[in-house]
Amino acid sequence: EKGNYRHYMLKEIYEQPTVVAQTLQSYIHQAENRMALPQIDFDLSAIRRVTIVACGTSYYAGMVAKYWFEAFARVPVDIDFASEFRYRDPVLEEGGLALFISQSGETADTLAALRYCKAAGQTVAVVVNVPTSSMAREADLLLPTHAGPEIGVASTKAFTCQLAVLAALAAHLAVKKGRMDRNEEHEVVRHLLEAPAALNAALDHDDDIAAMAHLVAPARDVLYLGRGPDFPLALEGALKLKEISYIHAEGYASGEMKHGPIALIDEAVPVIVLAPSGPLFEKTVSNMQEVRARGGKIVLISDEEGLAEAGEGCLATIAMPRVHPLIAPLVYAVPVQLLAYHVACVKGTDVDQPRNLAKSVTVE
Ligand code: M6R
After folding, report:
1. What is the number of the ligand 1 atom nearest to the C-alpha of 158?
2. Quick one: which of 193, 253, 321, 358 is 20 to 30 A from 329 by CA?
3. Which residue's alpha carbon is at the smallest distance from atom 14 of ligand 1?
4. Segment 246-255, tens digit of pLDDT
């Protein structure tokens, strides 16, 4: 039930601190400060390559995970949309882990890709939210998200729980491959366990986001920019806005702006910039200045330090807690979800049941 919430989507956005904590609990051995994955009967340290396949929001979770697998475990990662992967004759080498990410566990293209990989002899792992789903049943390694039933068509809490599982899996793989020592593992555990409180702190800015949604609602087009592991969040923000507000939106890697999309910039196109403090902050800010120099209207989402440095002259700013870069993609999911939600409310669209969309895409 929706309880006191106006929509399921809003309720599910607010459940994130709790369900992410629940999910992390089943992947972290708290007393020992270590990763703890479900028992499996094959040797993860033998994995030489990871192939990630998914659709929509689950695909964006996979994009974030690629950064983590590469940075932590130094394992090469391929990622593809299921609808592309299954028809392109992919090269699958021995010792590969095929990783499927799906809230429903029933998405037709993802399921077909899973069966293809299984037949090709890959080890099949799935990150799914429905433990009784087809994908859960057919996998060698089941990695459940504990988000609980997700009713809103726009995926929210499933996404942040997928990220929590994927971060744990990447760290676990790194440990197994001897790429991460005990101290580094402790640090990762510590940062992951900070996520629920940081998600709560992000939710505290709901009213600020509601108050500025009318600035974005009249736009015909909106751009989202992010870098590194926050680039997929730009794509996710654009997808959320498209789905529920019907505003055309695109996400770009910040550094790609000057290779074309900057031609679109004028005062009618709000540019949402995701820029947490961290090693990539300065780079993103310089891309933001390029937008501003062309009359672009910027909504900057950053922490206090970031806003103090670059917040001046923006159309609006959204403050986030200062967090470790590892958990920034989870925390920055909240403002992009809430922004899409409040813009949709301003526009009066059907948030939980947007036109033309179904919760689970079981046709090709
Ligand atoms: O159930 P799945 O995670 O496999 O679904 C994949 C996509 O259909 C899904 O994420 C879709 O993009 C959502 N409506 C996004 O909000």
Report:
1. 3
2. 358
3. 154
4. 999 999 999 9
Ligand 1 centroid – CA 312 distance (Å): 36
The residue to mutate among 53, 107, 244, having the most atoms of ligand 1 within 8 angstroms of its beta carbon, is 107
With helix as H, strand as E and coil as C, how does the chain read?
A: CCCCCCCHHHHHHHCHHHHHHHHHHCCEEHHHCEECCCCCCCCHHHCCEEEEEECHHHHHHHHHHHHHHHHHHCCCEEEEEHHHHCCCCCCCCCCEEEEEEECCCCCHHHHHHHHHHHHCCCEEEEEECCCCCHHHHHCCEEEECCCCCCCCCCCCHHHHHHHHHHHHHHHHHHHHCCCCCHHHHHHHHHHHHCHHHHHHHHHCCHHHHHHHHHHHCCCCEEEEEECHHHHHHHHHHHHHHHHHHCCEEEEEEHHHHHHCHHHHCCCCCEEEEECCCCCCHHHHHHHHHHHHHCCCEEEEEEEHHHHHHHCCCCCEEEEECCCCCCCHHHHHHHHHHHHHHHHHHHHCCCCCCCCCCCCCCCCC
d(CA 341, CA 329): 18
Of 60, 86, 103, 160, best ligand 1 pocket probe by most atoms within 8 Å of the beta carbon: 103
Q: What ipTM does this complex have?
A: 0.99
Q: How much of the chain, in percent, has pLDDT values that exceed 90? A: 87
Nearest residue (CA) to ligand 1, atom 11: 56
How far is ligand 1, taken at its centre, from the CA of residue 59, in Å?
8
| 359 annotated active-site | yes
Report, as ranges of residue numbers, the positions in the chain whose pLDDT lies below 50. Answer: none
